[in-house]
């Protein structure tokens, strides 16, 4: 099945998805998505398959809304990020209470710059552990403090869990366990 540029644009807009987000999901840059939508660049067969999966799975967005509600209502300090970009997608009230800035200051932005040295090191080890291939779905480790004034991280144990979202992207549920 061949998808026209107009079809890509229509499906993307129906899902309220920006070109940049679709580019991130497909591992390309925003300019590539723009060229696809103007029929200036053909999709590779692999890209077409991934694009179909992304657009086909979006009809289950209600599941993401339920996940967001569960996170926001959790009594534990937990937040959800995009596994690729580290953009903050949702956070519980106990997690927000740890921060010295409102949720709106972080929501939709990468929060990796606030990572402690242990979090950054663990992130670097994910490839060799098979995280991105889905061979490892959960990981618990010790973290130290990050000494950041607006988004402090206290020393403790953290669990990361991989969650596939309705748009085909992978989220990471981050839970402080002590």
Automatic annotation (TrEMBL):
CDD domains for this protein: HTH_XRE
A GO molecular function held by the record: DNA binding
Transmembrane segments: none
Listed InterPro entries: Cro/C1-type_HTH, Lambda_DNA-bd_dom_sf
Domain called HTH cro/C1-type: residue spans: 8-62
Protein name: XRE family transcriptional regulator
